[in-house]
Design brief:
By secondary structure, the protein is of the alpha/beta class. The chain is built from four helices and five strands; from the N terminus they run E-H-E-H-E-H-E-H-E.
Length: 101
């Protein structure tokens, strides 16, 4: 079962540095604006880049609307990740700061 976090909870987690945010959108979408310090790994590459996602921290996956990130969360759970969350509503519902670097 996929667990979800609200935009406010993810923003708090991001500010505290206690979690990892993985943005699974395509490169062009990521460049248009993303959560500061979010790690960009597109959904199509995630299975090949699992070693870049720490298992010992809370992981929040993000996409535009929450559909791709739900698939990413499932993939991570199947790979043995325990503390995995999906940003509810994706970037469409994100209320926090945006980075474009």
């Amino acid at each position: 079962m996929i667990k979800h976090l609200s935009s406010d909870r993810v923003e708090s987690l991001a500010r505290s540095g206690n979690g990892v945010i993985v943005d699974v959108r395509e490169s062009s979408e990521y460049r248009e604006g993303h959560i500061p310090r979010a790690k960009h790994i597109s959904l199509t590459q995630l299975v090949y880049r699992l070693k870049e996602v720490p298992k010992d921290r809370t992981v929040v996956v993000v996409c535009r609307s929450g559909n791709r990130s739900a698939k990413a969360a499932e993939l991570l759970q199947e790979a043995g990740y325990r503390n995995v969350y999906n940003l509810s509503g994706g970037m469409d519902k994100w209320n926090g700061p945006i980075s474009k670097n």
